[in-house]
Design goal:
With 624 residues, the protein is mainly alpha-helical. Helix content is 65%, strand content 4%.
């Protein structure tokens, strides 16, 4: 860092002093290797779409940004890490959507006691049909028992299941049907509650490091999977197995918060312009996980074997502690500069861009050391609530965002995991189509986020999703095998996937920089409230009234579209808000004069930057 007097231009070679400067006239200018950092910060705040659960440190480490650029911010090293971490992102999808298959409820009816044979679902001789008609009422849950007083209606104690599409599931093994149907939904509720632990894992990640926290969570996942499998193959009663399985889903949900930490790790190892790509890479691998879990169950038709394969898939990730290094940004933030330098040297070695310029990089490391000495103020969730809800404008926006994110997760899980129950035929083909619909939704979100504003595409996605959902029960009995209702559900999955992706971007651009990461983390936790209710609401179609869950989902989505009308547009802002006051004014237009003022405030030595711009202009002119 250099100094200059008013009216005096600093030389590029000046590092720390300018002669004969009265203290009152001292101004700061940028050192040779850091003179563009202020403009770089402006560019990042203008173009970077901060992702959920990013690093919670509000300060920007300018030297670490420049060092990452020197060693390559998106080279061979980053591509390898994107692939390795992407493979880990497959696990949360496989675990979450395994519920669709391992907890599926095939078509079933009460089991009857035959004199000379055992009963099975596909036994349809005329004699058998006549016996069922005389002894079973509605075939699914009640059966007639002949007593001295005649026929008496009683609940079934055993069932037979159609095994055309499904083999064994927890529903068939533990008889989770009829009045026990809601118990299988509780297992998914436990999983979603466990994912709310992202609040805790985020704090662990900031305190102990990204890699260390990921390893602990992977270790927890491996231990839970193995012990659960051992209990499932024991001689315990079905109810005890259900209790252990539910607890396992709770712990598994918490372990799956590696997804958000993986996202943070990828964001911190690359440049600003690649951060949207980092988020999308995980989304694509997540979709791959949905495809894999469908393929595994399709070939095994056994829920226990499916879980064993998933357990084996997780085991190699225990070696990720040796393969995936710690975030250099986090190491620098926590003043572990020696380890940060080793990571940067490793990145440069793999990318073929080693730190050869000793003097230049020494100055950068010196600047990094000075920056890390500045005490950083961290914001707890209590600070977030106080600072946000003291502002009436931000209070209203936060409540709207909380509701939108809850609706997103509720509808996404409700439609995505219930789409195969619309018909008893083709469950695997329908699930495959839903994966394709989600991919189209993610691509549509990326296109709209790049080409258009945020607000009105979000509203349109919600309205189209609401319309698609309300069509599902309306046309359910029209056509062969409910094809029209399935098509409407696929469109609903597409639009809610696009709305969910756009909502994440919108959320990160709404919170001010000082509390953005913590605010987004808080939003994630609150959104789980909607996710917890999704499985139980979906089951209302089987236990109460078929159109009821779709009416709830459609109405909630329509209200989300209306709420989005009161949100400001965020894409047109030249810079993301840094304070709550700036966030309050985010709905107001910013003219060129204010943009110049912000740019000038970011510039520490404007003369050097102007000189650099002239040099760049002359160079571009000579090339042309």
């Amino acid at each position: 860092m250099t100094f200059k007097t008013k009216g005096e231009t600093c030389s590029k070679t000046q590092i720390y002093t300018c002669k004969s400067n009265p203290l009152s006239n001292i101004e700061m200018s940028v050192p040779d290797n850091s003179r563009r950092h202020s403009l770089l910060d402006l560019f990042q705040r203008t173009n970077t779409q901060d992702q959920p659960n990013a690093s919670s440190t509000p300060a920007k480490l300018k030297a670490i940004d420049q060092l990452l650029e020197n060693v390559g911010s998106f080279g061979r090293y980053q591509k390898i890490q994107f692939f390795l971490v992407g493979l880990l992102a497959v696990v949360p999808a496989m675990t979450a959507f395994s519920y669709v298959f391992i907890a599926a409820t095939p078509d079933h009816r009460c089991q009857v006691n035959l004199t000379n044979d055992t009963d099975s679902f596909d036994k349809w001789t005329p004699v058998h049909e006549q016996f069922l008609s005389n002894n079973i009422k509605e075939r699914r849950c009640f059966i007639y028992e002949i007593t001295s007083q005649g026929k008496q209606l009683k609940k079934c104690s055993n069932w037979v299941f159609n095994q055309t599409y499904y083999g064994t599931t927890i529903s068939t093994d533990w008889n989770l049907v009829c009045d026990q149907l809601h118990l299988k939904g509780i297992t998914q509720n436990a999983y979603i509650i466990g994912t709310s632990g992202s609040l805790l894992s985020g704090i662990m990640s900031d305190k102990f490091g990204r890699r260390t926290t990921m390893f602990w969570l992977i270790l927890l996942l491996a231990v839970v999977f193995n012990f659960t499998q051992l209990f499932m193959h024991s001689n315990m009663s079905p109810m005890n197995k259900l209790i252990i399985f539910t607890l396992s889903r709770l712990l598994t949900g918490f372990a799956q918060t590696t997804y958000s930490i993986s996202l943070v790790l990828l964001l911190e190892m690359t440049s600003a312009k690649r951060r949207v790509l980092a988020s999308n890479i995980l989304s694509y691998f997540y979709t791959l996980g949905e495809l894999l879990i469908m393929g595994i169950y399709y070939f095994t038709r056994d829920w226990a074997m499916t879980m064993w394969i998933l357990t084996v898939y997780v085991m190699p990730f225990l070696f990720y502690y040796c393969c995936v290094p710690e975030s250099a940004r986090w190491l620098a933030t926590t003043r572990q500069l020696r380890q940060a330098r080793k990571v940067l040297e490793r990145i440069g070695l793999i990318n073929g861009r080693e730190l050869n310029n000793v003097d230049r990089n020494k100055r950068l490391f010196d600047a990094l050391e000075r920056e890390t000495r500045i005490p950083q103020k961290r914001y707890s969730y209590t600070n977030v609530l106080i600072s946000l809800f003291q502002s009436s404008v931000m209070r209203r926006r936060c409540l709207i965002i909380f509701y939108i994110m809850m609706t997103n997760l509720m509808v996404y899980l409700g439609i995505g995991m219930g789409i195969t129950s619309l018909t008893s035929n083709w469950p695997y083909e329908i699930f495959l189509y839903s994966i394709f619909a989600e991919l189209v939704g993610v691509c549509l979100c990326q296109f709209c986020a790049t080409k258009f504003d945020r607000k009105y595409p979000l509203i349109i996605f919600f309205l189209l999703c609401s319309l698609s959902i309300v069509i599902i029960p309306t046309v359910h009995d029209i056509g062969r095998d409910h094809l029209f209702s399935i098509a409407a559900a696929l469109f609903a999955k597409l639009f809610i996937s696009a709305a969910q992706g756009l909502s994440w971007i919108y959320t990160s651009e709404t919170f001010p920089t000082t509390i953005r990461s913590t605010g987004v983390g808080l939003t994630v936790g609150i959104a789980r409230i909607g996710g917890v209710w999704a499985p139980q609401i979906s089951l209302l179609a089987q236990s109460v009234w078929f159109p009821l869950p779709y009416i709830i989902f459609s109405f909630a989505t329509f209200i989300a579209a209306i709420c989005a009308l009161f949100l400001p547009e965020t894409r047109t802002k030249p810079a993301l808000p840094d304070t709550v006051q700036q966030a309050e004014r985010s709905g107001e237009p910013i003219d060129d004069t204010e943009l110049k003022i912000r740019t000038k405030k970011l510039s520490i030595c404007p003369e050097i930057e102007e000189e650099e711009e002239e040099e760049t202009s002359l160079k571009d002119h000579s090339i042309a």
